## 1
Amino acid sequence: LLGTSESKEILLKSLLDPQGKDPTLQNVEVDDGDYYLFRAFLKAMRGFILTWTSYNQDFNARELAAIMNAEMFNIQKFLDRYPDLLKVRADGPAALLQAKQALIDAIDDYLIASDKIRNDTDITAGATELITLEADNYGETLLRENLAKIKTSLQQNAPVQFINNTIGTEYYVYGVASFSRTEPSWWEKGY
């Protein structure tokens, strides 16, 4: 079903406007890159959820809230009371392997999405792109490089050295105000 561009567009538009009542959405172009970006997000969420649920989180939340509200929280006493807290569950190793693969797949989908969105030149007349990325966007290039390093790290069980010198990134999403990672202020640059 999701093999054609038309079916991918129908899926994303139905998620953006389930009732089909937004007349402006008819002029939004949903491309393969948008679909892959959405799929990358879902796979990343799956990876994070599998990671989170791989660890024992069995504790009394009301007790914790009461202790914290009374400002009597002591981490050592809390861990003594719940010695298995945040230890890998019995089924945890298998879930962690699934999480690792989900994150690798999410990175692959993001890299495909990024390439397709940046190189998209086929714009329908009168339509607006759902998501756009400038081809020379330094921040997004940095993100792709870091994701490639994370993927290699996950595949080789090795540490990763991130690149963190950003200049600025701005994303434009149809129907939503643009959001950005702004350029560092002068005092952050060391002038």
Note: The first strand starts at residue 28 and ends at 29.
## 2
Amino acid sequence: RPGPGSLQWATEAPPSYAVDVDGNALNVVVDVTDETPEGAYAVVAVTLEDADGNTVAGVVPAATVVVDRDAPTIVNVRTFDDDPASGTERFADIPPFDVLNVAFQVSEPVSSVEVVLGGLAADLNTGCVDVSSLAFQCTLTLSGAVIVDGDSAVGVSVRDRAGNVTSSVQTVSIDAAAPQLVDGSVQLQVLN
């Protein structure tokens, strides 16, 4: 339980460390309050207290807690087909026009990446790879998915290691309708 001068964590997943006390492995959770300034804090010792008020101290070797309340930023979002230089913004649900690649960069390391098209994630075969330390490329395969003809939003969402989330949206054009002949637009010509 937190005591005077202890840190309290304000996110959904507090950091925890294993501590050995009298031959027993314990898991210690570090808490950080909203008033704790951002930055790195070294955790050097832990004092544990049981329900009867007995205390014991343990050393935590090389443990650091980083307080991070800022969401990462997403920059340079672009869509393309198989050619990164194409900058294609029009896709379809039939090969070879059904591959939508999304490339982007983030400002800090992230723990999760999600890319959706028009709110659909489950229907798409999506794969994301970490191209470099802060650059990602995700591929969405549109064939076989239920997609809607017209403009559609490509949403990119990332979560950093502290649980902060941010997203970015870009619009692409989806051509899911076959071309139609307009009455009177075709004229037959007989050639001799």
Note: The chain has no helices and twelve strands.
## 3
Amino acid sequence: VGDTNIKIMKNKLFGIELGTVSLLVAFYWFVSFGRSVLPTHLINQGLTIPQIFFGSFLIIVGQLVLLFIIGFKRRAYSLKLVWTIAICLYALFFILSGFRITSLGQYYFASLVAGVASCLFYLFYNIRYFSEQKEGKTYSHTAQFFNILIIISLIAPFLAGFVGAINFSYVSVLTLVFFLLALVVARSLQVL
């Protein structure tokens, strides 16, 4: 029994399964790194600040649409499938908005896709993450969750900007690498 407890503790980080934390880090790094230099690229593609803001508004609309649809569907969802779809939808967002934008509709559609992807990932991730906590540890696990996001939000944009200053194509290549990494982590996660 003692060996089993040690093995379980080694697979946890601050009381949360290490795979669950790894998924958050991989997904948020992929999204944060990829989105960091996107506003500059959008302006270079000819979009105006109000158009970019409207695209940001459409991200929220995409989230609300997904919540509305899921709210009427009472069924169990495969977490691996949901996370895989969310990661792939974010990749589609980067493809539609990170390369040549041929129309404003393309950017607006990409923004809706990003909203759906974000909501799809975090809705089911939060259920998984907070269901793994021990009773009475809600505040420390919430702090851990947001500290991970803050740390990545400080490092990834800086790194993406540095790499983008060398060559913007490198940002695209690294975003692809981080997409593949997030996909591997999501697909390999042990779902209880």
Note: The first strand starts at residue 12 and ends at 13.
## 4
Amino acid sequence: KVLDGGRRGREIVILEVLVYAAYGPAGMLLAFFPVVLASFVVRSLSSMERRVAEVSRRNRELDVMREISTSFGGSTRVDRYERVFAAIGRLLPVEAMAVLEWPGADGEDFAVHVSERCTATRREVLAWARRGRLDERRFDRDIAPEELSLGDAREIRLAPAAHHQVRIRLSTFELHSGLLILESASSTLHA
């Protein structure tokens, strides 16, 4: 009966008592049915707003995935990663990003791509990948595909002010092809 815990809720209780005394249960039901109906409508609107927010979030994610897939389908190699970094940046609060591609069968070296705001150089990221022998790591499919690091625990630091890091394996069921590293000052990256 108390709608918002404030004065308005007390007024409704007082009105219910007065109406009940004068008109009985039937009069009270008729008088306060619109209040009950309004509360159901407000509750439905609230849940609808949550659903709209969820659908909007999913649409943003789909838009980013579509842009990333078209980047790999039709753009030049140099332009491709800048478009991927821009798309991810629209989805997440990210300060710096890097993509590592494992060496191919022809004996080529790691391919390293860093975003513009990354303070670590390609050479530093490449040295870190070689030291850690990242391309030789065995990945267990039963564990999460991402690794979270915080603050000084980050093995490679792409941006000094970004304390939250996520390293995500780029893989399919048959193939592990690389690693995506994201860094942010926001803890939402770890959420």
Note: Residues 1-5 have pLDDT under 50 and may be disordered.
